[in-house]
């Protein structure tokens, strides 16, 4: 790997200066994705700009109805943060199975989002939470739904001189099922072959009053299926109800074959993951 200049701005103003002076540079935060690509030679930027020292885009901020998570917040920090655990157990469940402690110590939520891998573990939970992202440049700050920001594997709406500065998520009120599960090739440090995030509101009698579902690794971006959400709403969360919806899931995901699994296997797993929701039938565990 050839030596290249690395810049370490400590304020956003310094960052904007550096990005203006070095427009061909690439930014990184934890480097857990970017350095893999650098080593493989798939990218060769002339210089790098590290976001790791920018305290302005680190940490979790309580904004009343919302939580704001700085883009350079590491997975480990977020997983240990009481506000994440209290308000977004679904995100905490995904963070707990993302990579390993050393990678969670370096990797950031912003890197996971901008990397835009269909297997990114924070993405399905952030989709069901209707997360909004904040993009900043020297000139402006703009916000948009996460689902509009990512438009393909590794493809995001980020312009020159812009970075992702954070994620804004509305605190949950009535949802009582917060589920995330990924299937990988092994139990630990595995990329998802298929994953499911589910946020449900169940009545005391076990009827689904509201459902948000998102699958990872079974399409070019996270897959949400409103027809499945609608079909589940108003039904008792039973094995039969969930089983009846499996064909709808299998018909509407669009996985690919790759080194980890065949498209057909991913299609089957995407449907089967629904059945796991029956464990919450009476509001448990
Ligand atoms: C061994 C190993 C196991 C892994 N396992 C998993 C796993 O189980 N699940 C999973 O989801 N991921 C996994 N990953 C991938 C990776 O750790 C995560 O995607 C992580 O969140 C990336 O964050 P980062 O800060 O390291 O990103 P970086 O590598 O720093 O950056 C990734 C990309 O995002 C851009 N970027 C980063 N931050 C910003 C920003 N604020 N604004 C604009 N652009 C930005 C960079 O330019 C780059 O293109 C694994 C990686 C490794 C090496």
Q: Can you describe this structure?
A:
The chain has 285 residues and is of the alpha+beta class. The protein has 3 domains: 46 residues, Uridine Diphospho-n-acetylenolpyruvylglucosamine Reductase, domain 2, CATH 3.30.43; 111 residues, Uridine Diphospho-n-acetylenolpyruvylglucosamine Reductase, domain 3 (2-Layer Sandwich), CATH 3.30.465; 103 residues, CO dehydrogenase flavoprotein, C-terminal domain (Enolase-like, domain 1), CATH 3.30.390. 33% of the residues lie in helices and 24% in strands. A 5-stranded antiparallel β-sheet has the order 4-5-10-6-7. A 4-stranded antiparallel β-sheet has the order 11-12-13-14. Strand 4 and strand 5 form a beta hairpin. Helix 10 packs antiparallel against helix 11. The model has no long low-confidence stretch (mean pLDDT 95). Flavin-adenine dinucleotide binds next to strand 2, helix 2, helix 6, helix 7 and strand 10.
List the helices and strands and how they pair.
Layout: E1 5-7, H1 12-21, E2 26-28, H2 34-40, E3 47-50, E4 60-63, E5 66-70, H3 75-80, H4 82-87, H5 89-96, H6 101-106, H7 109-115, H8 123-128, E6 132-136, E7 141-145, H9 146-149, E8 150-152, E9 155-156, E10 163-170, E11 177-183, E12 194-202, E13 208-216, E14 223-224, H10 226-232, H11 239-252, H12 263-275
Parallel strand pairs: 1-3, 2-3
Antiparallel strand pairs: 4-5, 5-10, 6-7, 6-10, 8-9, 11-12, 12-13, 13-14
The structure holds flavin-adenine dinucleotide.
Rg measurement, Å: 19 Å
- Overall number of structural domains: 3
> Strand arrangement, largest sheet?
4-5-10-6-7
CATH class of the largest domain: Alpha Beta
**Mean pLDDT, as a whole number?**
95
CATH level 3 topology of the largest domain: Uridine Diphospho-n-acetylenolpyruvylglucosamine Reductase, domain 3
The second-level CATH architecture of the largest domain is 2-Layer Sandwich
